[in-house]
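Summary of Year 1 activities. Much of the first year was spent building the evaluation harness for sequence design. The harness presents a backbone, in tokenized form, and records the residue chosen at every position. We chose the following record to illustrate the format because it has been used consistently in internal testing since the harness was completed.
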């Protein structure tokens, strides 16, 4: 029996891991404190490195925030876009799968706190808001609209106002994310995320299906 060992020196393995450690520390602090109140020295301290080391990877707090979004949210959107393009079944099943996967991959993780941060601090940091709008919101909106268009085109959904229905679908998901990072942790409430999503999908899909003739 042969054991496999990493041939890299310990210091080099540590160096390779630093960007991920910094991003993990950053998302924790951004979600806990918001963008304005998060300091780079605190991110470095939580990641177990010096502030100087952090600057080797990220020029400033804005670059660090963008890296967090591109690491934790953007790839999930990209994977969902591919799944939408390749899906061959009923559009109701596609919409259900995408929404439930959003909850598993983003909504039920620390990454869901980023949308609340943007809503709270967009006025003070318009460049970050534009970045988030372009890389997350616009892509997510287009993807949801494309699923609705697919369903209407195939006769699986009734004729609807697609731009308005797209926003109607997005709003409950944003509310669930905001609840998770605001009221949810500190107040007793009957809202259960999975039950909420099940009810949301039940009402939504029934409303989208064509009326039986």
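For this record, the design step produced the sequence shown next.
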């Amino acid at each position: 029996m042969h054991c496999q060992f990493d041939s890299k020196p310990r210091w080099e393995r540590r160096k390779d891991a630093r960007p991920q450690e910094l991003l993990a520390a950053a998302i924790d602090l951004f979600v806990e404190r918001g963008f304005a109140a998060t300091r780079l020295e605190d991110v470095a301290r939580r990641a177990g490195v010096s502030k100087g080391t952090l600057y080797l990877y990220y020029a400033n707090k804005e670059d660090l925030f963008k890296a967090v979004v591109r690491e934790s949210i953007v790839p999930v959107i990209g994977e969902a876009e591919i799944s939408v393009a390749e899906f061959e079944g009923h559009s109701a099943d596609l919409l259900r799968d995408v929404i439930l996967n959003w909850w598993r991959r983003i909504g039920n993780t620390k990454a869901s706190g980023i949308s609340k941060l943007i809503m709270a601090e967009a006025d003070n940091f318009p460049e970050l808001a534009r970045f988030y709008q372009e890389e997350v919101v616009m892509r997510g909106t287009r993807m949801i609209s494309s699923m609705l268009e697919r369903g209407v085109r195939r006769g699986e959904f009734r004729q609807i106002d697609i731009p308005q229905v797209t926003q109607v679908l997005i709003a409950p998901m944003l509310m669930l994310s905001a609840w998770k990072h605001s009221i949810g942790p500190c107040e007793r409430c009957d809202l259960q995320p999975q039950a909420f999503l099940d009810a949301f999908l039940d009402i939504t899909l029934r409303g989208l299906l064509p009326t039986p003739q």
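Confidence is low (pLDDT under 50) at residues 1-13. Quantitative recovery figures across the full test set are reported in Table 2.
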